[in-house]
User: Fold this.
Amino acid sequence: MAVIEEVRRQFKADPGIMEGKSDPDYGACVDIVTLKALKAMVAPGLLAVAGPVLVGVALRRFGNTPGGLPAGAVAVAAFLMVGTIAGVLMATFMNNGGAWDNAEKYIEAGVLGGKGSDPHKAAVVGDTVGDPLKDTAGPSLHVLIKLLSTITLVAAPQFM
Assistant:
């Protein structure tokens, strides 16, 4: 909504934008979107950093497991394993966006009717979904997995 308000403000301030006589201030919209995205990532970032620490410290109070291992360390190990497994599976799924991108290029090369055909239209939709997955979401999960393991290793003495 903030971007819409900014665009409307620019249209009112400079009518030449609508007539094509002047350029809008693209930077203002980029700044709004960037700031909102960074603010939206605070909670997930804190979850990745604080999650292992909170689990380990909270369950450390239960003492040892029946096998004699520290409960906090065992709980954090399980937390890390589940996070890694889920992250790898999600990243693998999301990296398949590259296949959707390649399908569009394959059809544009003349296969299945080529450019403008119904298969091409479907491939364009797949590419629209696949590009953000392979370029942003999939690789960011790799960073999340590394962050979880690094935080766990650094804070490991607190879980004993």
Observations:
- The mean pLDDT is 88.
- The chain has two domains: 1-40, 47-159.
- Residues 47-159 form one domain.
